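Tutorial sheet, problem 5. The two components below are modelled jointly, 292 residues in total.
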Amino acid sequence: MKTKPCLTLEDCKKIGAACEAEARKNNWNVVIAILDDGGHLLWLARMDGATPANAEIAIGKARTAAVSRRSTKVWEDRISGGRLSMLGMPVLPVQGGVPIMHEGQCVGAVGVSGVQSHEDEQIASAGIGVLS
Amino acid sequence: MSFKTAIQAIAATMLAAVSVGVAAQAPLPYGAPISIDNAKKAAAGAIAEAHKLKAAYVIAITDPAGILIYLEKMDNTSNGSVAVAIGKARSAAQFRRPTSSFQDRLKSGDTYLLSLEGAVLVGGGVPIVMDSKIVGAVGSSGGSAEQDNTVSQGGANAVK
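Model answer (structure tokens):
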């Protein structure tokens, strides 16, 4: 039987704290959502000043990255490149969702919403960086 | 009884009825949404109660509109508990009362509550009150409705 790694709440808090630190360093107010590989919410924080919409969007980006095993930027780029049919896919194709890979397997994803898309991704990647 | 005394007696009875009604029913007004720091404090209070029960829990903290501010899912909690915890917090925030009060009323025969849009009728959602204003709500899921209510109450008490 195959075994797979699994995010713990401790892992999530570490990732979340690193994301918050990256956001605070830049004076950004964002929502950070961490999901498992099935797209279930494990941890979420809405920093003061982030909007209710950001909470929904962060979860949507993380879910897309978690269940498709690729960053949401990949989806955004494909659609901007002309593959408009992909708009019909059940994904949120906006940069800022990044899968969490561990030992070659996807264990979940981080989604961030609140600033410019590339900055959202910068925060998500900074968080995931603490695992390595 | 003179006419004046009778009027006074009626007035006193009406006043008493009104004050009891206000004390028992009128929910507190909404305030500004709880800060992320206080939301984390509330979650820690709820988690402490969950540890006492030795149970795995999802704790959700929402703003007065019922939108998430903070969420934690302990290891080995059912995936279904995430939506349940958020739903309880949202109900407590939007109706400005604990979901346990709906559960009690349903049990005593208020079946019309079943048709109340967005209401969760299971204990475990509790409004967070700071400075006599509702600033958000705690929702938890992982044990029985009574245990969930205790856990959420622990969260709300942590920021009182």
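Marking note: Chain B touches chain A through 16 residues (CB under 8 Å). Full credit if you identified this.
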